[in-house]
Amino acid sequence: DDRDGQLGPIVASYMNKPCVSVVSGVFVSGGTAVVHKEYSAGMMGEFEVDLPAVLGIQAAKQSPRYAPVSKIRQVQRTASLGESGMGDLGPGGGSSVANMAPPEKGAGAEMLDNVEDLMDVLKDKGAL
């Protein structure tokens, strides 16, 4: 669930199962799993969750790189912001659109009417 993290909790609520989103690591042992959940600024949480559970797995191949908080604070103390008008940009300043085209059509998507259909698809794909 890469966009806004809503699919996992919604599916978990319909299934009445626990849910952990933004998971970057899973270690299963018996009827529980220890999961690593990513937070901003490179923070990591470790949770133990009873199985079965719904996990929203982080899709990145590598963990994101976060700027250290000390560096952010350093920039806050030393940086200053100023205002510029469009005339200050000079000739060719600003932005322009070079090309526009409608998006390419893909295979399309199947719209499901209810949760039962979603559960059937997940079962067929081996996700449940």
From TrEMBL:
<protein>
    <recommendedName>
        <fullName>Electron transfer flavoprotein alpha/beta-subunit N-terminal domain-containing protein</fullName>
    </recommendedName>
</protein>
<dbReference type="GO" id="GO:0009055">
    <property type="term" value="F:electron transfer activity"/>
</dbReference>
<feature type="region of interest" description="Disordered">
    <location>
        <begin position="80"/>
        <end position="107"/>
    </location>
</feature>
<keyword id="KW-0813">Transport</keyword>
<feature type="compositionally biased region" description="Gly residues">
    <location>
        <begin position="84"/>
        <end position="95"/>
    </location>
</feature>
<dbReference type="InterPro" id="IPR012255">
    <property type="entry name" value="ETF_b"/>
</dbReference>
<dbReference type="InterPro" id="IPR014729">
    <property type="entry name" value="Rossmann-like_a/b/a_fold"/>
</dbReference>
<keyword id="KW-0249">Electron transport</keyword>
